[in-house]
Design a protein that fits this description.
The chain is α/β, with parallel strands linked by helices. It is built from 4 helices and 8 strands, in the order E-H-E-E-H-E-H-E-E-E-E-H. About 25% of the residues lie in helices and about 25% in strands.
Length: about 160
């Protein structure tokens, strides 16, 4: 992504995060500068975008992402995201985005209550976001899929918007 080259991309670490180093490496490979953001720090350090990586924030003891949404960094991130800062949630990061109401809906346990770990082919339906603009509409890509709570649910209006 040309926008990543030289960009400062924040990568948030929560207690229990386990993919923050992978996310920081991906930022560096894409040509950006990975900026470590600590969950307890209410400062976004002038980043151009933020990645919320996967893991088990705060152990996911209550509900995945439910405790993380109250972290000091999230207070600033919610305000910045509502003001247009690009935010990318991976796995537990997506759950945190739902819990913090930056995304509509919620995530529930997978069918058959099993953890899923596989490569997943997806089709690009919308290439107008900062995250998808270098793909062609209709292009199929493969992403790693790993989760126990990957069943996304939302009301019909929001599901159509989120998936469009």
């Amino acid at each position: 992504m040309s926008e990543v080259s030289g960009a400062r991309i924040g990568v948030v670490t929560f207690p229990g995060s386990l993919d923050d180093r992978d996310a920081a490496r991906a930022v560096r490979i894409a040509g950006g500068t990975a900026v470590a953001l600590w969950h307890g720090d209410a400062n976004l350090h002038d980043v151009d975008a933020v990645v919320l990586p996967g893991g088990f924030s705060y152990g996911d003891y209550l509900r995945c992402g439910a405790i993380a949404r109250f972290a000091p960094v999230m207070e600033k991130l919610v305000v910045a995201a509502n003001g247009g800062l690009p935010v990318f949630g991976i796995c537990n990061g997506f759950q945190i985005l739902c819990e913090s109401h930056l995304l509509p809906g919620a995530l529930i346990r997978n069918d058959h209550q099993h953890f899923v770990c596989r490569d997943q082919k997806i089709r690009i339906e919308n290439n107008s976001s900062i995250w998808t603009k270098n793909f062609e509409v209709g292009q199929e890509i493969v992403i790693p899929l790993k989760n126990g709570e990957g069943g996304y649910i939302a009301d019909e209006k929001h599901a159509a918007i989120s998936l469009a």
